[in-house]
From TrEMBL:
The lineage of its organism: Eukaryota, Metazoa, Ecdysozoa, Arthropoda, Hexapoda. Residues 68-141 form the COMM domain. Pfam families: COMM_domain (PF07258). InterPro entries: COMM. This is COMM domain-containing protein.
Length: 142
């Protein structure tokens, strides 16, 4: 039975999803039924695009669970006073988070923007929480 191009694509995608950082030996074993010249081309493409493949697969996995951060924009305002105090003099961060809803990373229509205004303490808490999340993710994917 001859495999169609679509079936080969699905099989290769499943191979990468199951273990995106496979060694070349494992890939050779799992794709062993194709001729050696094509296998070498696949391995060469994989080695060149390994990080891109890993990032796309991680994005797809994250998109399953909910909104995914696509981009952000920020600016700092210096507030000189308010209705309560004439001499407030406080820096505030305006942070715009551009989120794509799960599963639709390429469709701009499903993007939404979350706007945050943070003082120095709130910003430090946000940075601390994001650092903890990054540490957890990097430990989880190793």
């Amino acid at each position: 039975m001859v495999e169609t191009a679509e079936e080969k694509n699905v099989r290769f995608q499943k191979l990468l999803q199951n273990s995106p950082l496979n060694s070349f030996k494992e890939i050779k074993e799992k794709l062993g039924n194709i001729d050696s010249s094509r296998l070498e081309m696949v391995l060469e493409c994989f080695s060149v695009r390994r990080n891109d493949i890993k990032n796309i697969l991680l994005q797809e996995q994250c998109a399953i669970s909910g909104p995914v951060l696509q981009d952000f924009d920020w600016k700092v305002k210096w507030v000189m006073g308010s209705s309560k105090s004439a001499l407030l003099r406080e820096p505030l961060l305006n942070l715009d988070l551009y989120l794509s809803e799960g599963g639709s990373l390429k469709i701009k229509d499903t993007q939404r923007v979350v706007n945050l205004e943070l003082d120095k303490d709130e910003l430090n808490k946000l940075i601390s929480a994001l650092e903890k999340a990054q540490e957890t993710l990097s430990n989880w994917h190793m």
